């Protein structure tokens, strides 16, 4: 019922004037993305299959919504040329982000995986510094120190770090890199085109990429039990539409630094939900690390130019 309400609210937000719904949209994003890791943990399908169905279901629902009165939106997508190519590239990055992040969740705890993967603003900051030669103020430096220190503290909060834990941390870092690419490209494309013109080709590219990965890994994407079907549907409606799609919605009307704020709150929300729903034990130093990393990320995204 919660996700049904979120889906209804999401559709209303798309129809209404953006300036009146910024707070509501941000709240939906926080709730949605915080529940993503819990649902991924609960579902029994492999990472590639989970990510495939998450995006495919969301893609189908969004396409149905935008074609209910005709196919003019779909026709306009094929006239975007270079921007269409960028949306496809963005979707490819999104697919690899989900694949590596969900793979890490199969190995390590929620609080550890989400804290590391949410370092993507740090990667965006470093890329802008190296590639674009952008300079940032002292506040960004403070945020960077807090984010990295908090993440290190979170990773070291485990009494013993196993080989699997290191693998999960590396996968989360790779996922953060692809998330950074996804957001950077999406920020540019959304400043030029409508929501559907970006997310439909992006999600289509993601779906195809994840389908290929699933086949290469030898998984049957249609062999899913009823329980997993329900969880995958919730994952698509909540975190995918209420989270990622709503983020793309905000990128049209807000600076990327402001629009990304709800996303960087994910570690705190996800960690608390994991402790309550999954009974995951989180050491005190883990909690401190999550909070410090989140504060650092907030400082970074609020200080970066859009």
TrEMBL record:
Alphabetized UniProt keyword annotations: Membrane, Transmembrane, Transmembrane helix
Transmembrane helix keyword on record: yes
Protein name in the entry: DMT family transporter
Any one GO cellular component localisation term in the record: membrane
Entry coiled-coil feature ranges: none
Record domain EamA: where: 27-154, 167-301
InterPro entries found in the cross-reference section: EamA_dom, EmrE-like
Domain of life: Archaea
Tagged with keyword RNA-binding: no
Native species: Staphylothermus marinus
Membrane-spanning parts: 20-39, 51-68, 80-99, 111-132, 139-157, 169-188, 200-219, 231-251, 258-278, 284-301
